[in-house]
Amino acid sequence: CLVGVCSPAAWPRAMGGVAGLPAVVLCSASWALTSAPLSVGGAAVVRGLSPARANGFCRAQRQLDCSFDPPNYEPLPQRGTLAAAASAATAIAADPAVAAGADAFGGASGSITGAEGSTISKRPGYRRLLVLVAGVTERFYPIPTLRHVVAPAVRAGYTVDYYAVLSMDASGAKAFRAYWYAPVGNPQFVNYTAQDLETYIIRRARFYGASRAGVLLLPNEVELDVLPFHVFANQRLLVAEKHGIRESTGKFDASGTFWLFLMKMKKVELLWNWTVGNRMDRSYDHVVWTRSDAYWVDDLKMEHFPDHARVYSRPWGNLCSKPFREPAINDQTFVLGGHVAGRLLTGYSAFLLNKSPLLDRVGSAEDFLKRLAVVRKVPWTFVRPDWLPFFLAMHMQPSNSSPPVLCIRGVNRELLERPVAECVAPWRVPATMAFCDTLVL
Predict the structure, then answer these.
(1) Could you tell me how far CA 3 lies from the centroid of its own chain?
(2) N or C, which terminus of the chain has less Cβ within 10 Å?
(3) Nearest residue to 438 (alpha-carbon basis) of 415, 422, 417
(4) Cα separation values, 341 from 60, 156, 191, 285, 336, Å
């Protein structure tokens, strides 16, 4: 199990009021609530929470007792032992900067210190943005999101936190619904261990300006809860999809779309709840939720989304293409006001527990979210598609003898250069970028 060492300022509380002793905290949780997750062999360390909140959150997640006092800390070597912990505690205590009242990373007293030494002043009026990414490692392209969502917001004066939840092993239909593209996983992460991927994401997030970053890596896809009776009695299903009782088993089954819809909502809610339990300050001004395979090609400008009590999205359809006559919700990316984000990002619980008849017999996943916004009184605004400038990306393998090719979906070079609706400048898409729909399979 990892061992954490608190700074001297945190010792009295961590050691039950015994001042002057290095606080060695053992954590037995199976995953981390931390501004910079660090795990070895399945163990994890919890940072940034008071002991009461950390213990309560761990118990809620059915984990063993774990805690870690406020985020003035120095992470130990990953292969540290109890003896190493004592040695590290002695070294930290002897540090002149620590003795002078600063934390282990040089943050002044009265500041909030995040991962790897970032310091957020407790000044009134500063703006905070939370970026959430959910998906699977096979379809994970983090750099465009960091470059075009996180970095521009930092330049605009936001304090940005970046959190992701990814399933490490969701191969097959669970990872790729669009099988006709001959998709394959992102080769960059094929041989990454959980620790490798965690380190990669945290370092890149910090490089692009994120003040705090966290990664929740799931060994497999999330497991769904037993559906309550009212789901069947009131037909709370995607009525446009196939569903019913299988004659061979006598059990209820539905199309893969229905199960993927529930798994995505559960994963998003899990990530949202994780960030709520890991907060160190007041709520966020805005929350950006985006898919792991969203490939951003231009900067997200937060001035387009001023309302803190509203949700913004593109209408259904692809960038550069004509939208449908009657706009429908595009559920690939949202910008949510901080005052209402929790009402939509907890849609999985609403599906299981909220018995409003308006949520029954929905036609699609997008229809469910639209109705949920009505039930929970969340105003929704469609914005110009080029205000959320991303495409969906994947790797394809056109033939067994060819290497995987990164491509973007829903557009081709001709449409990019001669768009029929709001689009991005053609030069925003690299000239070497392939287009999935025009690759010969």
Answers:
(1) 26
(2) C
(3) 415
(4) 22, 21, 35, 10, 5
